[in-house]
Amino acid sequence: MSDAPRILLIGSDGQVGWELRRTLAPVGQVIAASLAGEHGPAIDLVDAGSVRRVFNEVAPDAVVNAAAYTAVDKAESDPEQAQAINGDALHLIGELAATYRIPVLHYSTDFVFSGQTERPYREDDAPQPLSVYGQTKLDGEQALLASGADALVLRTAWVYGVRGRNFLLTMLNLFRERTELRIVDDQIGTPTWSRMLAEVTALILHRVFTGDLEMERIRGLYHVTSSGATSWFGFAEAIRDLSGNPCALTPIPTSDYPAPARRPAYSVLDTRKFRDTFGLLLPDWRQSLALCLADLKG
Ligand SMILES: NC(=O)c1ccc[n+]([C@@H]2O[C@H](COP(=O)([O-])OP(=O)(O)OC[C@H]3O[C@@H](n4cnc5c(N)ncnc54)[C@H](OP(=O)(O)O)[C@@H]3O)[C@@H](O)[C@H]2O)c1
Questions:
Q1: Among residues 76, 129, 157, 196, which one has the fewest Cβ atoms lying within 10 Å of its Cβ?
Q2: pLDDT by 10s per residue, the chain, length 298
Q3: Residues forming a β-bridge with 250
Q4: What region holds the RmlD-like substrate binding domain (predicted)?
């Protein structure tokens, strides 16, 4: 085990981080850092000293950052904290990864786009965030890509899974309490299972460690979601039908469900670059949802 590459996983308690602790286990020795420090070193991305200290002590061979300020609406009234975690920390992580000459994998979001388009967004489409969350995530991805580190930024969307705060678990809870729900039908995107993201991350990192993929060649920005697209209403319908729930669902426009942060009306991501580069399949969102629900049923 001592020869196994050391992977510093930051944000190991989040939706994606929790899955990464499992999928990265066969790839290397996972050092699971989190705010609480429950399963490894404590790290606070707001505290540059703690980030430097963890890098120094762990001496990782690669870093995967799954930590983020993800409370999209709260970020509108808490922009400094969102910027510190999603933006400033990535300047530092990039600087440290460049200094240590280690690869760094990071996640960003479809919310870097404004949604004013009718075809899936490509990596070279101009970002134009509508929210503080989107703006701070954009700053973080740009900082990392400009840092000189061998960085992969995986932009994803509409993440759900068996734990954490996400639309799937919210719907399942509401279905237990309510007989009728009104769900936004005019925002289009792609629900993406946290497990699938963690699996493709592990597959890529394994190939990097074995020398099958050269970071200098593949570094950069990639769009990674499930295949297909739907609205929040369509996602809710699928959850209801697959979980065998009788709740009545009514489609409503975004204007009937005001929220502090503006969201893109259309944020489907074109994943061709990712599929072509890594030769991986990205399953249809309904297929992943069915598997995730089967996991929840146990
Ligand atoms: N969720 C989505 O729908 C979605 C969509 C597109 C992209 N993404 C991106 O995907 C990545 C993973 O997201 P996720 O859904 O797994 O998020 P998540 O479940 O909210 O997990 C984020 C983790 O970051 C931790 N964290 C927050 N502030 C921190 C700090 N100052 N220092 C260290 N850790 C801190 C959180 O800890 P606490 O819980 O203790 O605060 C949490 O464990 C993020 O980059 C996110 O921007 C997510």
A1: 76
A2: 468 999 999 999 999 999 999 999 999 999 999 999 999 999 999 999 999 999 999 999 999 999 999 999 999 999 999 999 999 999 999 999 999 999 999 999 999 999 999 899 999 999 999 999 999 999 999 999 999 999 999 999 999 999 999 999 999 999 999 999 999 999 999 999 999 999 999 999 999 999 999 999 999 999 999 999 999 999 999 999 999 999 999 999 999 998 999 999 999 999 999 999 999 999 999 999 999 999 998 8
A3: 182
A4: 6-296
Mutate to test the pocket of ligand 1, among 22, 35, 110, 267 (most ligand atoms within 8 A of CB): 35
All structural domains of the chain, each given as residue ranges with its CATH number in brackets, are: 6-165+192-226+268-283 (3.40.50.720)
Q: Give me the active site residues, please.
A: 133
Pocket residue to mutate for ligand 1, from 43, 78, 159, most atoms within 8 A of Cβ: 159
Q: Is the CB of 156 under 6 A from ligand 1?
A: yes
